[in-house]
């Protein structure tokens, strides 16, 4: 088949025709033939050589009627090409002749064989190209590409023309000079004239629409007027009229009058006769446009009361449409093309922290609420003209209002010492039993801990302690299916200020405000400090620290896996428990069952101490910023090079001038934090626990490059992973990830520090590490919110009345007597209504009413609606049936 030889000659006069063409036709066989033949007829395809059509015939040629001279020239050109082809050697014959010459002649050498092979390759390549470009599929592909090129040429020309701005010359008429002396305050006068004008314009517009609908004339003008109004509203950002103080009262009056008129249109009583049918009734298309405008006006007003009124209207229209006896009219009355409204809500970001919420919501979420689940799996149609069920529209709008309200929600917990809500969040991740029971893979919000008001968390091997702001101590097992902290009864009467445990240990310490130290748990080696090795289930006072003067009272405590330490107000360090490898610092490997002073640091004021595990090392920081270490030296964890251990404190010279303030001991490694926020680590490097990007052992303190530029204020060390808290409330982690210690469900070890996503907006103030667990908690500030927040808060009587009415409608039949579970739309509406109610009432009330896990704030300022009287029973019945 001869190769194609044609070119495209796009004509501008045909651009509008191409823009109206369905370009999808080019991808069907018949459509391609039709479009191609049209381009040939229009003269937009110019052939420069011979081409066969898809049927094998010659295509029509536009230049069939060329004059003799041009035809002669073309013939001469063809003759010249044929002559050149005849003169040129044929590659196939040359290759064939080479091969034939070897049959009876001499055998070829290596160079001749290579030359022959090269000729054959060129021959095959040329044949393949000619075959590929002359197939029917290749011809159709070229034709499709030319058609697409023609379409994009038309499109680009049209866009360019639309971008050209026509500049009108300004009027040259001179205006009379203004007498400045006659200038008067015209603000009120202008506003009055504007009000008169707007009222007249609205009255005229409303009268025109009523007359047109009554007479049936000018129907197109009515639809066009409503459509232009709707388009103008959709072009505005949402809540543009929310701040009424910045909006002219004239505009607010216009919006209010327009809303009343539109409401009468959608309900069909614009002529004073509700639901008028037959001649004189409002066309369904205009009613749909009026409904869309009314809903867009509610979005522009941006208040919760307006949105609730819109939702109630949708439910009212849906209910009245279902009562129609005419099936066709009933179907039309229960749906409307409102997809653009739902798309607008879908694009709205959640209030505060919106920049982080979408990217990090999947990290810090618990079980999905009904509305979260509903929106997550909701897929909106693509056709904007598709009629959407009005009830479903109301459900989607309420679900989005619930979503927008989520960042503003009051906490589900409160401090035991206060009736006000606390904003504290406690987040746990890693090997936690109740996390898997809740079907959460990543981190989980620990509301049961936040309700205590967490001040400190200390992690042991199998459980952890929680110190509340009220001085109470609680304990919780990692493996428990439920998060239910148990109060340590033996410390109820004490005001505890510090707690201590070790990620590889089985004993605990608690420090009271009076300087008394309590211990319980495993007693092997005398680690409890009571002079024996008896284990204790309840805390017991360590008598060695009783009756001390102010300077000798304990101010800091620490636990290793098998021993303990305490620092007094004067900076003296005491250690007791297992003494092997010299970890106690007393110059021997003997166990000590009662606290003993570390004499090697006498004269120095110790401000921090850290105890290790297994072949343990001990670190101490003195007031002058120096670090001392002793105990086992394997892997260089003492920070002085080599693996030699020592039984008395020795200075870590590499840290001498760095002004260290805190030290931590993990499993065979050490960490130090300086005053200016830099972190150093050294010791065993397996599982990337040191954070230097390798698994090499480090025998001297080495700066963590991954935290450069960050000021770290606290560090926590688990068995093989670490956390660092910066002054910007970022939490960085590194090390082992076999139990998702870094949010990473792929269980990949983290070689260098990196921020954990989603925590930088939580105002984290504390961190803790267990053997394979991590915890972080935020500050405990009081919750507050304004009286008006766009779309979610509007504290007024109308809002409560609407919530009352809405809850009555959606809770009907949800008492467990009817079919259960209830329909999804009812459940979503009920949850959204309760959440919005919960957000309204706290601004005027303080008492909390908890019903089956739902916290509802009851007002004490006389909001005397039946909703507040019946709400507890409604919520109780709903959740009783649900459970």
TrEMBL record:
Residues 51-94 are annotated as: Disordered. It comes from Pteropus alecto. It holds the Pfam family WD40_RLD. Gene3D superfamilies: Regulator of chromosome condensation 1/beta-lactamase-inhibitor protein II (2.130.10.30). RCC repeats lie at residues 515-570, 571-622, 625-676, 677-728, 729-780. InterPro entries: RCC1-like_dom (IPR058923), RCC1/BLIP-II (IPR009091), Reg_chr_condens (IPR000408), Signaling_Regulatory_Domain (IPR051625). Residues 72-85 have a biased composition (Basic and acidic residues). The lineage of its organism: Eukaryota, Metazoa, Chordata, Craniata, Vertebrata. Residues 594-780 form the RCC1-like domain. It comes from the Eukaryota. Keywords: Repeat. This is Putative E3 ubiquitin-protein ligase HERC2.
